[in-house]
Amino acid sequence: MMQIGTVNIARRFRGPPNSANGGYACGRLAAFIDGCAEVTLHRPPPLEKNLVVKSDADQQVALYDDSDLIATARPAELAVTQEHSPPFDEATAASTRTFDVAMHKLPMCFVCGPDRNPGDGLRIFCGPLAADDTDWHGSVAAPWVPEPYTAGNGNTVRSEFVWAALDCPTAYAAGSPAGFPTILLGRQTVRILRLPNIGEACVVTAQLAGHEGRKYLAMASLFGADGTAIAACKATWIEVQRDVQLGAV
């Protein structure tokens, strides 16, 4: 494999206390692939280290910490199955039905951590879209208005923040009033139709698609201000021991 770049993830973009938010890390690696990509995390991505990106002849890329394989990515296909968004105000109402802050297992998470202040984290807090869905059996949703620090070229959001915004909602889709399970992201596939604009009133929704043993499969969609889908996601989460989730071992 040939080295094609490096990735260094700042501590600000952590999920667990000492490793990157999974979606953000996946998005950073996926940037080395054109179009829809599938990223598999082999171990928690370390923070504030120069990680090496390598590519092979089959358009697959890999992320290394010295000799340790952190993640692999390859071109993929993903259908956009949900084309229209719930209204922004309904997504906002859904976020008020999220589980109690005390139940959050990773309150420092860049994407969904309640300990992160506006302007510091994405603060995407999903809750049941239906007000009577007290057991969290249906879709979850939340609003997202991208802030200026997420900007890439011009007024559009950088792609890694779209990956991040689609990541944690799929964990919430496996959740309940008691919080989400003790899980870590194992694989994420994202298709971006267009990047949102800074300040755009977006909505993210997610649904649990399957659960077998330690694996949870969920789908998510990101919608623009006009209510049309602008990105889709498929994610696999793996249930782990609490000390593994926190990076203690």
Summarize it.
With 249 residues, this protein is of the alpha+beta class. Helix content is 14%, strand content 31%. The chain has helices at residues 22-30, 88-95, 159-172, 242-245, and strands at 2-7, 37-41, 51-55, 61-65, 68-75, 127-128, 140-144, 183-192, 202-212, 215-223, 229-239.
Verbal overview:
The chain has 249 residues and is α+β, with helices and mostly antiparallel strands. The chain contains 4 helices and 11 strands. Strands 1-3-4-5-2-8-11-10-9-7-6 form an 11-stranded antiparallel beta sheet. Strand 4 and strand 5 form a beta hairpin. Helix 1 packs antiparallel against helix 3.
Radius of gyration: 17 Å
Strand order of the largest sheet: 1-3-4-5-2-8-11-10-9-7-6
- Overall outline: globular
Number of strands: 11
Ends apart, CA distance between termini: 30 Å
The arrangement of helices and strands along the chain is EHEEEEHEEHEEEEH
Rounded average pLDDT? 96
Contiguous runs where pLDDT drops below 50 for at least 5 residues: none
Beta-strand content bin? 25-35%
- Strand-pairing-aware structural class: alpha+beta
Main beta sheet: strand number and arrangement? Answer: 11 strands, antiparallel
Helix content: 10-25%
What is the overall number of helices?
Answer: 4
